[in-house]
């Protein structure tokens, strides 16, 4: 007997051969609402996004509207002509970020409720978010690290599903969760392009973005492995589940060996260890289903589901650790003794602290032409720029270059807003200390 048939038989037996009732009606829901990218500033290009799903037992036919409202005012309306059962679609609305606190509300099949559904009370979802004023200092390097950490964290959260007394329902929940995790990973392409779109032309070809593009491809490869596992699990082919699980593990190991800017992904090693437990239990269940002697299939199945969710929790924890590491490695800019609020005021010296470096250089660039307009360097983890020269008021791109005591080169790129002229010394020829000439 094929293994798939064995699993199907086991599922039906443990589920009491009950299954779901077939009402034939759709159930339209707002599956998710988000504004991308994260950490929005005033004036930044963004996308308002809503995923609409039909989780009912029948197709939604005849057409219906999806209304998006921002702070109680209509932002957009989109019409859908049909949505088949178990299918979803994403609506994307371009938006120029406005400063302040906002409430985004998405309503499906509104306002006339044209579609008869099994549940009419789950057709609206709201999201609250904040758009900050334009920041005086913004690290593009940190933005990219936070993006990859955030997507990885969402992937881990998606893997946490509901475990029930019914193996049939639990298995279905697990498959859906794995597909949700894959969707979160595939989201990286869109998010990365949105983040990169806000980067000035002067820095758009920086090596940081080539590294990030390679990571995007790896994230999508991991998503593909998740999708294959979901398909094989849904048809009960545990041999193929294991085969793809080993491929997924290899990709997770590869990810744990990556570096983005100044941040290593090594913390993901603990998530790989959790996934090893998943593989071991999946192998045990596969062998039991083939007739091997041992523990009960139900007990192992439950342990497998729990181990998979523990893996997701660990993946999220590692992702948060990645974000914290990126924040700790970022340089700190201050307006004399005070943090920079809104813009760097040249009434006071610009002080940059960058932990771990023994030699530091800052370069400021004109964001339109890409021309280098200022440079200063200093030995030690702190650099101070005196306010006794001239630099026009405006926005500048910065590149920090540093060398650690172990000879490791570090780079951070970002943006600095300057106000008040005649206070920063113009660029002058300086002697480049040994070790910095390679940048």
Describe, in plain words, how this protein is organized in 3D.
This protein is α+β, with helices and mostly antiparallel strands. It has three domains: 111 residues, Immunoglobulins (Immunoglobulin-like, Sandwich), CATH 2.60.40; 193 residues; 88 residues, Immunoglobulin-like, CATH 2.60.40. It contains seven helices and 19 strands. Strands 8, 13, 15, 16, 18 and 19 form a six-stranded mixed sheet that branches. α4 runs antiparallel to α5. The longest helix has 33 residues. The radius of gyration is 26 Å and the shape is flat. The N terminus and C terminus are likely disordered.
In short:
The chain has 439 residues and is of the alpha+beta class. It has helices spanning 3-14, 140-158, 167-197, 207-234, 238-256, 269-289, 297-329; strands at 28-36, 45-54, 60-70, 73-83, 88-96, 100-108, 124-131, 137-139, 259-260, 263-264, 332-335, 338-339, 344-345, 350-353, 357-366, 372-379, 382-385, 394-404, 409-419.
């Amino acid at each position: 007997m094929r293994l798939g048939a064995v699993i199907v038989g086991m599922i039906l037996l443990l589920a009491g051969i009950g299954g779901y009732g077939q009402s034939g009606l759709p159930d339209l829901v707002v599956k998710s609402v988000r504004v991308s990218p994260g950490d929005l500033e005033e004036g930044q290009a963004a996308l308002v996004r809503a995923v609409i799903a039909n989780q009912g037992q029948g197709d939604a036919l005849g057409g219906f509207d999806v209304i998006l409202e921002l702070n109680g005012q209509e932002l957009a309306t989109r019409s859908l002509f049909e949505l088949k059962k178990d299918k979803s679609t994403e609506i994307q609305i371009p938006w120029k970020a406005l400063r302040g606190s906002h409430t985004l509300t998405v309503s499906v099949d509104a306002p006339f409720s044209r579609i008869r559904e099994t549940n009419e009370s789950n057709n609206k979802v709201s999201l609250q978010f904040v758009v900050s004023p334009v920041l005086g200092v913004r690290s593009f390097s940190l933005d990219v690290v936070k993006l990859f950490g955030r997507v990885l964290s969402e992937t881990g959260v998606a893997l946490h599903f509901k475990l029930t007394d019914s193996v049939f329902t639990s298995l279905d929940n697990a498959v859906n969760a794995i597909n949700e995790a894959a969707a979160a990973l595939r989201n990286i392409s869109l998010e990365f392009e949105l983040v990169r779109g806000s980067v000035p032309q002067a820095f758009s070809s920086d090596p940081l973005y080539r590294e990030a593009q390679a990571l995007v491809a790896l994230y999508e490869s991991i998503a593909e492995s998740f999708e294959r596992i979901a398909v094989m699990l849904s048809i009960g082919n545990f041999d193929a589940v294991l085969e793809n699980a080993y491929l997924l593990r290899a990709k997770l190991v590869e990810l744990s060996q990556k570096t983005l800017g100044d941040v290593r992904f090594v913390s993901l090693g603990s998530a790989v260890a959790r996934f090893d437990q998943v593989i071991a239990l999946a192998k045990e269940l596969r062998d039991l289903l083939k007739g091997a002697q041992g523990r009960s299939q139900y007990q192992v199945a439950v342990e497998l589901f729990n181990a998979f969710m523990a893996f997701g929790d660990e993946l999220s924890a590692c992702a948060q650790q990645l974000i914290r590491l990126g924040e700790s490695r970022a340089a700190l800019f201050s307006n004399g003794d005070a943090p920079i609020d809104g813009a760097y005021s040249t009434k006071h010296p610009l002080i940059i602290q960058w932990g771990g470096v023994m030699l530091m250089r800052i370069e400021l660039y004109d964001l339109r032409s890409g021309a280098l307009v200022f440079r200063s360097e200093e030995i030690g983890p702190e650099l101070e720029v005196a306010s006794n020269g001239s630099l026009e008021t405006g926005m500048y791109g910065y590149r920090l270059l540093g060398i650690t005591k172990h000879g490791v080169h570090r780079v951070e790129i970002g943006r600095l807003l300057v106000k008040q002229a005649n206070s920063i010394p113009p660029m002058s020829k300086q002697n480049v200390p040994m070790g910095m000439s390679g940048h």
